[in-house]
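2024-03-11 09:14:02 DEBUG pipeline.ingest accepted 1 chain
2024-03-11 09:14:02 DEBUG pipeline.ingest length=273
2024-03-11 09:14:03 DEBUG pipeline.predict start
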Amino acid sequence: MAALKPVVIATDVSMHYPARKAKKRTNAVSGVSFEIASGEILAVIGESGSGKSTLATAVAGAAGMHDLGSPVVHGGSLKVFGTEVRRISDRKRDRIQFRVGYLPQDAGSRLSPGLTAGENVAEPIYARDRKFDSHLAGQAVATLIDAVRLPLTTMNKYPYELSNGQRQRVAIARALILEPNLLVADNPTAGVDVTVRGTIVDILAEVARQREFSALIIADELDEARRLADRVLVLHQGVVVGQGTLDEILADPWHPYVAGLVRARELMTETGA
């Protein structure tokens, strides 16, 4: 049986944000290479401004959207489901996005306030097909609400009636409602109380195993990456400074940034934090 092709193949990818003057353009990502196999979860870690969100945007098919706030792939090759993202046409972009569930930063705070939680989760269904059977949609929503460990009564509540952690779980359900082959989650625990971050991480890991999709997940902490991912990509100032399993990366901290992560982790262990 032939091996499945990787879902994502990035080869020497460089990205910048558009600027009216070319001289003011600076790379947000420089020469990044990695792959995501079918069914694999890749975590991306790095400090603020390291290019994590920029990379996630591109993999989700949301780069090059013809505005100054949208990053552009200007070097190398980035293929998602075999389609080249660099200079992608709108038609091909739609095909990619149909197969990708995208959870942007602070997704829970972006829910439509005038819709119930259930309506927010179902919204992508009707964006694709306005005539979709409402009973089937309701069943799909209920299944995911249960999968993200929320009571079914949550479906009838509005976002303002929910906690940050509950809203984030609703956003996760929304990102998965079209049964994507690839989930891109940008810092899914951001803005969530520290006491429930572990629950969010566990939910993502559990649902990924159950539904067998691939994922690129931006993680804030090493422990999150360990609990979520098969492999880890470490970015620093837009450049890859570590790649492999977390144990492999920590065992060979050749870059000062990675060495700093190791020292911080050892200090936390010593202090019992």
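2024-03-11 09:14:41 DEBUG pipeline.report The chain has two domains: 1-99+183-193+212-268, 107-179.
2024-03-11 09:14:41 DEBUG pipeline.predict end
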